[in-house]
Amino acid sequence: LAGSKALVGAPVAQMDALAVARLRAAGAVIVGRTTTVEFAFGGVGLNPHYGTPKNPFDRSSGGRVPGGSSAGAAVSVADAMCIMGLGTDTRGSVRIPAALCGVTGFKPTASRIPKDGVFPLSYTLDSVGPIANSVKCCAIYDAILAGLDTVETSTFVPLPGLRLLVPRCFLLDDLDPLVAAAFSRTVAALEKAGARVVTQTAPQLTNAASIYDNGGFAAPEAWHVHRHLYSKYNDLYDPRVASRISGGKDFNAADYIQLGYAREAAIREARALLRPFDAMIYPTVPVTAPTITEADASDEAYSKLNLLLLRNTGLTNLLDGCAVSVPCHQPGEAPVGLSVAGMGGDDSHILAVASAIQDCLEA
Q1: pTM given for the model
Q2: DSSP collapsed to 3 states, the chain
Q3: Could you give the angle at which helices 299-318 and 239-246 cross, rounded to 10 degrees?
Q4: CB–CB of 340/353 below 8 Å?
Q5: In whole angstroms, what is the distance from residue 251 CA to residue 345 CA?
Q6: pLDDT truncated to tens, each residue of the chain (363 aa)?
Q7: How far apart are CA 126 and CA 112, in angstroms?
């Protein structure tokens, strides 16, 4: 039901989504459905209809947010209830909960995995990806989901000599001290292991992120998806989700077309920036998970946190790229994710680079 009560009376699905069908065909046992933010429209992980799964870290505090939208998928993997959780990622909804819950999440190039049977949020930005315990596990599930015959294990690469970009831009702004320390420690470990890490100003990435101003693609596209359902059942929507969906109602065609041109330009500039590198790395989210009470204190607090959690991850969706979030915190600390990102079509290589990085961090 996409985490909503507005679809309670909808017809029962007659077949699996293609991604699920491919998993079943490969022998997967589907053990259940997990909680999501209503209609996958949010990065915090709260769901007032069906409850919010508590982050596995520090449950004694009363519960920290799991991240969203694929909240239950990440919690179920972190709690060892399953070995893989399937999620969607429109602006970070696989990678945010993976980072906050201390597991691994992969957002592929949007066209890599079919979205047949997936309830849409943004036709332009939506993608389907796995959450699991390691990059190597994600690579196996990705191969199944993408319809590949085998996982090309030969593509996994040694870390020494890899060229990694740390982009000096908004991605590094206002980091929580724990996140900043974990990221600095990670960069030092990668350099010590032989990676060639280059820190370089990247104003083009900051310019690209501005495309999200005024709602970006998701606002008008979500309104297109929901306009008929919303007109009948808006009182059944989570008000925080409803306000974001209805925000696309007055988006005009000229501005929507301009978004497409701006995105094409941003992709060209980012591709040129990343051409000399194997990947760029940065913190997946700039903060660790706050408590559910803090996040739910007011609409203002929720909105501020939601935008902050979506800030870094949304860049990859906008650039039609691919990215892996791998844990980079020390045992006992609040989970922190490291993003290993590249451009569209670089999925196999980014998985290989991320696997090498994860092996280094776990050594």
Answers
A1: 0.97
A2: CCCCCCCCCCCCCCCCCHHHHHHHHCCCCCCCCCCCCHHHCCCCCCCCCCCCCCCCCCHHHCCECCCCCCHHHHHHHHCCCCCCEEEECCCCCCHHHHHHHCCEEEECCCCCCCCCCCCCCCCCCCCEEEEECCHHHHHHHHHHHCCCCCCCHHHCCCCCCCEEEEEECHHHCCCCHHHHHHHHHHHHHHHHCCCEEEEEECHHHHHHHHHHHHHCCHHHHHHHHHHHHHHHHHHHCCHHHHHHHHCCCCCCHHHHHHHHHHHHHHHHHHHHHHCCCCEEEEECCCCCCCEHHHHCCCHHHHHHHHHHHHHHHHHHHHCCCEEEEEECCCCCCCCCEEEEEECCCCHHHHHHHHHHHHHHHHC
A3: 50
A4: yes
A5: 31
A6: 899 999 998 999 999 999 999 999 999 999 999 999 999 999 999 999 999 999 999 998 889 999 999 999 999 999 999 999 999 999 999 999 999 999 999 999 999 999 999 999 999 999 999 999 999 999 999 999 999 988 765 568 999 999 999 999 999 999 999 999 999 999 999 999 999 999 999 999 999 999 999 889 999 999 999 999 999 999 999 999 999 999 999 999 999 999 999 999 999 999 999 999 999 999 999 999 999 999 999 999 999 999 999 999 999 999 999 999 999 999 999 999 999 999 999 999 999 999 999 999 999
A7: 11
Rg value, the chain, Cα = 19
Output the six-digit token pair for 104: 């691994």
Structure tokens at 326: 């791998």
Cβ contact 309:325 at 8 Å: no
Question: What residue has token string 């679809």?
Answer: 7
264: its two tokens: 């094409």
The total number of residues shown for the chain amounts to 363
